[in-house]
Amino acid sequence: MTATTIPRQTTEAAPHVASERSAAENRLGQKLVAPALIMMLLVTAYPMLQALYLSLFRYRLTTPDDKGFVGLGNYATILTDSLFWKDTLNTVVIMVVTVAVELVIGFAFALVMHRIIFARGVMRTSILIPYGIITVVSAFAWQFTFSINNGWVNAWFSWLPGISATTNWYGDHWHAMFAIMVSEIWKTTPFMALLLLAGLSQISEDMLEAAKVDGATAWQRLYKVILPNMRAAIMVAVLFRALDAFRIFDNIFIMTKGAQNTESSSFLTYRQAIEQFQLGLGSALSVLLFLTTLLVAYLIVKLFAVNLAQARGEA
Amino acid sequence: MRKTGVSTYIGFVVILVWCLLPIAWIVSLSFKSVAETTVGSPQFLPEHATWDNYKVLLGMTPDKTASHDFLLALRNSFGISIIATFLAVIMATLAAYAIARLEFKGKRFVLSLALAIAMFPVVSLVGPLFDMWRTFHLFNTWPGLIIPYMTFTLPLAIWVLSAFFREIPWEMEQAAQVDGATSWQAFRKVIVPLAAPGVFTAAILTFFFAWNEFVLALSLTSTTASRTVPAQMSFFVGPDPFNPPYSQLATASVIVTIPVIIIVLLFQRRIVAGLTSGAVKG
Question: Among A13, A37, B102, B155, which is disulfide-ready with A29 (CB 3.0 to 4.6 Å)?
């Protein structure tokens, strides 16, 4: 990037001085982004290509001499294995449920934070604590909360149907999934709320006042004025959170270690590549995970039909 | 003027409880004795509050097995996070200046790449990086974590900084020069104070990422030579693997959360501005 600078194409009509100046600007710009760009390509693009290459081999670190080309064999193995589909389903369920719940709660939080005129500092500080706390710590806190011997959930909520002093939250699939999702939702709702609050504060008070004068009810104002005007903010929040939820790993690793079929796609990839030294199979899983993430991003962008670059002011 | 309704007060209390209850819980748990949690202690507050867990983890007791690993991990976490933050912010500042102020070919490409990396499933790099790091002797070293950390924080840092830099009235630099300042003076006295808050915000968000990161820390380290706190905590099972030392884990949790709380208390306004910058325009 630094060695080869591409001369800027200028129209013949442009004055000579201006074109020289813009060529210099072009060179400087490229030099300044070069370190960051090279770093990003080296640490993500190169290993990803490496994964693509390794995924075509039978390659296990415990038996390195047995390395051999298997073509798409690893992909066939994975795609015909029910475990892969089960883990993908878990991941999708976690993503859809957590993002939906966070969107609703986050929006309610954003409304409160927008209206509040006292103790704004206290509110901002508290809302940033779940965001800033280490995910592993949050996972431990919630694991202990739902613990049968040392948690308070069973004691506090035993009046609810289905919960008693002996409810084992890590004893079956849905209870464990619930505990994992609670931890995920607790930690990331504040982030969602902050993004939505930023969108909310862009809506002009005049517009809301006008709607009120015209006789719109609170619900009408929400659906007809507030939500349509927050489209870009909602889109960004949902996209970022959905892709973040899709790579869920920390919470599951700490809370259940994948027991009761709570494993996610990320967990499966980690387990194959690192714990079982299956670099060939693990790489194939990496490639599939990457492709699924792209698909999810594509679907969300299509669903909301908003130009992302435009939404972030980077047209 | 808006007036504050009852529902807003209720909402305020709900948000505070939501955010702080789990924190209160781990703080309370950290004061329970190991004996109390081993027997089972489902009540919220400890029966006999004790500083024992803090003493054990900070090496103030004769038995240093738990504190030795924990303090090394704490050192690794601080060292790796601070170095990664420093390097990422330098690179991101250069790039963001170019993106905010200069016209050059490939700007869109850099921005798209940054966005793609921000959404990238980190775990899909774990296998190939593990393989590469063994070849380059970076496995289980500080640089082995610093390099990926700064890469994965570059996108966020670049976004935040270019949003900040776009708001800076750069013509003030020329104005200062017209008034007789040298270009160095103009840069130091005018531009640096204007740009510093943005750089600082990017640094905080980068630090949070590195301090929090778990997948890479788990996969690319094998001993306390480079293992960071989140990874170390996940291996901290105590003598009985079927009965983890809840209260000691809670104590470790509280200790590593203290820096986060201090940063949040001091810089809450900037963090919020950084998190939401560029997210809503359009």
Answer: B102
Q: What is the pLDDT of residue B88?
A: 94
Tell whether B16 is covered by a domain: no
- pLDDT tens track for A29-85: 889 999 999 999 999 888 889 889 989 988 888 877 778 888 888 899 889 999 999
Comparing alpha-carbon positions, the chain B residue that sits nearest to A308 is: B282
Q: Is residue B150 part of a domain?
A: yes
Once rounded to an integer, what is the mean pLDDT over residues A121-144?
91
A268 has a chain B CB within 8 A of its CB: no
Residue A11 is predicted with a pLDDT of 47
Please provide residue A86's backbone torsions phi and psi, each rounded to the nearest 5 degrees.
Answer: -60, -45
Pairwise CB contact (< 8 Å): B250 & A140: yes
Q: Chain A partners of B248 at a C-beta cutoff of 8 Å?
A: none
Kindly state whether B115 is in contact with chain A, defined as any CB-CB distance less than 8 angstroms.
Answer: yes
Mean pLDDT, rounded, of chain A: 85
Q: pLDDT confidence of A213, banded at 50, 70, 90? A: confident
A212 inside 8 A of chain B by CB: no
DSSP state of B30: H
A133 is a domain residue: yes
**Predicted pLDDT at A1:** 38
Q: Across the interface, do B95 and A32 touch by the CB < 8 Å criterion? A: yes
Residue B9 has pLDDT above 80, yes or no: yes
Distance CA B251, CA B249 (A): 5
Residue A121's domain comprises 89-311
Measured between CB atoms, does A98 come within 8 Å of chain B? no
CATH number of the CATH domain containing A97: 1.10.3720.10
Give Cβ neighbours of residue B8 (< 8 Å, ≥ 6 apart).
A112, A115, A116
> Which residues in chain B are closer than 8 Å to A313, comparing Cβ atoms?
163, 278, 281-282
ipTM of the complex: 0.88
Residue A197 lies in a domain: yes
Range of the domain at B159: 68-236
The dihedral formed by the CA atoms of A49, A50, A51 and A55, expressed in degrees to the nearest 10: 110
Question: Within an 8 Å CB–CB cutoff, is residue A108 touching chain B?
Answer: yes
Measure in Å the smallest separation between the Cα of A52 and chain B Cα atoms: 9
The answer as to whether B122 is a domain residue is yes
Domains: count for chain A: 1
Which tokens sit at B77? Answer: 């976490």
Q: How far is CA A7 from CA A12, A23, A30, B94, B200, in A?
A: 14, 6, 11, 21, 35
